[in-house]
Each structure stands twice: as structure tokens, then as C-alpha cells.
Specification:
heterodimer, A: 293 residues, 2 domains, 9 helices, 0% strand, B: 63 residues, mainly alpha, 2 helices
């Protein structure tokens, strides 16, 4: 019993030390020669548990099972957050300058935040694909792209609808608006790339490179309002010195931001589950074709 | 609730957000149903994963 326990512990430590041998590559082969990288003793117990949990999630079957368990709770949390957020939006006072149009802010800002957050997440997943070869990294990136495109589209459209009464125009080719439009086009490019290349492994690598190149746009979007002249207002929530928005507007805005973020997480996990099932179907159909040949 | 002279822009923004979020939810739900249907169809034709094939063998009584 003790020997078995010790063997299991060593196996776990080996997984932590190596990382790669526990995660077979996409052809199902373990990669030799990577199992002597570092030692398990260099990890604190909490870190080690986190790493083991991450490795466990690399197993698509376990990931799908986890999603099935977690998704109902996430959906419930999302609905509750939207209920509170929309109630807060309804109760929020008009802005002393912008009047009732400030209510557009409660959907514009969360979508603008998510448009950048999703690309940031895709960039982290791109590193997971190219550097660590995590089996679910390209699944995460692929499934996030349409969601990010939808949020960016909403940020652009709601921004235009807010701009017309406040600025007197739906659109102006200034740095903030143009850089967000570029982000939207890059989302479409990533989606197109995934649809163009049939093999998920090759498509994943190409999309990962494009995603990392596109990440250059994120600081440009963030600081465009400070670097260049623009109609868009400067940062008023995430800024040095704290938010400049009154608490009566800031609280419902924060709740709506949480609600949209929960919505993204729910949809993303569900889409990842779908993608894993799609790849399972693809593999089975290829197997069938091989048997028939 | 009085939305003032720009009510059309405010309502339009919320309708657009609802439509896009609704479309995302429908897309993810329909995609899940389609993949489950495809997997069920393949299983019905006897095409299963190796892990799924090995499961019944474990259940066999020893001879």
C-alpha cells in the first residue's frame, strides 16, 4: 500500500517536473526527453496542486465533465447578475451633462472591456498552443474568437448610438474608434483562418501567431485616448487616482461588467465543450473512412 | 421612465445588445445539440471511441 502510494506520488511529481510527458501531443504520443526539467521540490504545495489541476483539465473528457457540472451554476449566476445590473441601470440617475443617454454606458463599457479582455485571453491561449502545447489552448482560442467579435461589434454599435446624440456623429476616424475597428477586423481574420484551414492543429498554430501579432493593438486601444487627440473621453474607471464616475453610476456599471463577464465565461465554456465534441465527431468520421478504405 | 429626446438611441442600443447576446446563446445551444446528434448517430452505426469500446470488456465476468 505504502509502496503504491509512493509510486503514485512519484508519478505525480514526475508529471509536475516534466509537464510534457503527462500531456501527449496531438498524435497521442508522449514526447520523450522533457521529463527532467526542474524538480517537484521547487514548487510550493499550492502551486503544485494548481499545476496538477491544470494538467487534469488537459484531458478533454474530464474538461467536458467539469463543464457539465459547472455550467448550470454559471448560467444561474449570469442571470442573477443581469437581473441586478439591469435593475441598477433602471434606477440609475441621469448624468448632469449627458442626460439619459448615460444608460448606453452600462452596455457599451462592459462590451468594450470584454473586447480587449477576450483578445488578451486568446493571446494567453496562443502562448499555451505555441509554447506549452496545452491540448485545450487552441480550443479555448478558437471558441473565444466569435464571442470576442460579437462583444467588439456591440462596443462599436453602442458607441456609435451614444456618439450621435453626444458628439453629433455616429463615427469619426480617430485613434480609439479606428483601433477598436481594427480589433474587430482581426477577430474576423482569426475566425476566417480557423475556417480556412481544415486541420485543427495547423489552424491553431497559424491563428496563435496572428493572435500574438494582434495583441500589439491592445495597448494602442487602451492608451489611444492619451496619446492622440480624440472625441472619445479619457479613461474614467481604470485609471490612476481612482474612478471619476459618481458612485450612483459606477455601481450598476460594475454589476453589468460582472454580468457580461459571467456571460462570456458561460458561453466560452459551452462553446469549448461543443468544439471538443466536434473534434470527437471528426476523429470518428476519419476512423470510419479509414475502416471503409 | 423618461428617456428624454434621445430615447431612440438608448432603446436601439439595448435592442441591439439583446439581439446579439440572444444570437450567441442560440448559436451555442444549437451547436451543442448538433454535435450530440452527430455523436449519437455515429454510435448507432457502431463507430465509437477506443475508450468507449474498452469499457464493456471491463464489465465482463471472469471465465
Amino acid at each position: 500500500m505504502a509502496a503504491a502510494h509512493e509510486k503514485a506520488r512519484c508519478k505525480t511529481d514526475g508529471v509536475i517536473a516534466g509537464l510534457v510527458p503527462a500531456i501527449p501531443d496531438r498524435d497521442g504520443r508522449d514526447k520523450p526527453g522533457h521529463d527532467q526539467v526542474g524538480t517537484a521540490t521547487s514548487f510550493a504545495p499550492v502551486t503544485r496542486n494548481a499545476v496538477v489541476a491544470l494538467i487534469d483539465l488537459a484531458n478533454p473528457t474530464r474538461f467536458v465533465a467539469l463543464v457539465e457540472r459547472v455550467l448550470p451554476w454559471l448560467v444561474a449566476a449570469t442571470l442573477m447578475a443581469f437581473a441586478f445590473g439591469l435593475w441598477g441601470t433602471y434606477q440609475a440617475p441621469d448624468d448632469y451633462q449627458q442626460g439619459a443617454t448615460v444608460k448606453i454606458m452600462f452596455i457599451h463599457v462592459p462590451n468594450a472591456w470584454l473586447s480587449m479582455f477576450v483578445w488578451g485571453m486568446m493571446s494567453a491561449a496562443a502562448l499555451g498552443t505555441l509554447v506549452w502545447r496545452h491540448p485545450l489552448a487552441d480550443v479555448a482560442a478558437k471558441c473565444a474568437a466569435p464571442l470576442g467579435a460579437a462583444f467588439t461589434f456591440l462596443a462599436l454599435v453602442t458607441g456609435s448610438l451614444w456618439g450621435r446624440p453626444m458628439w453629433g456623429t455616429y463615427w469619426v476616424w480617430d485613434a480609439r474608434l479606428t483601433s477598436v475597428l481594427v480589433l474587430f477586423i482581426m477577430y474576423l481574420a482569426v475566425i476566417a483562418l480557423w475556417r480556412t484551414v481544415d486541420d485543427p492543429t495547423r489552424a491553431g498554430r497559424a491563428a496563435a501567431i496572428l493572435t500574438l501579432v494582434g495583441a500589439i493593438n491592445l495597448p494602442i486601444i487602451k492608451f489611444s485616448v492619451e496619446w492622440w487627440n480624440t472625441l472619445h473621453q479619457p479613461a474614467s474607471v481604470f485609471r490612476m487616482g481612482g474612478p471619476t464616475i459618481d458612485r450612483s453610476l459606477l455601481v450598476p456599471l460594475a454589476v453589468m461588467a460582472i454580468a457580461f463577464t459571467l456571460l462570456f465565461v458561460s458561453l466560452h465554456l459551452a462553446a469549448m465543450r461543443n468544439e471538443i465534441l466536434r473534434r470527437r465527431v471528426r476523429t470518428l468520421m476519419l476512423t470510419q473512412a479509414e475502416r471503409a478504405a | 421612465m423618461d428617456l428624454g429626446p434621445h430615447a431612440g438611441f438608448i432603446v436601439g442600443a439595448y435592442i441591439m445588445a439583446t439581439a446579439v447576446v440572444g444570437a450567441l446563446v442560440v448559436w451555442v445551444t444549437a451547436d451543442h445539440a448538433a454535435q450530440k446528434r452527430a455523436l449519437t448517430e455515429l454510435e448507432r452505426r457502431g463507430i465509437t471511441r477506443r475508450s468507449a469500446e474498452s469499457r464493456p470488456l471491463k464489465m465482463k465476468e471472469p471465465a
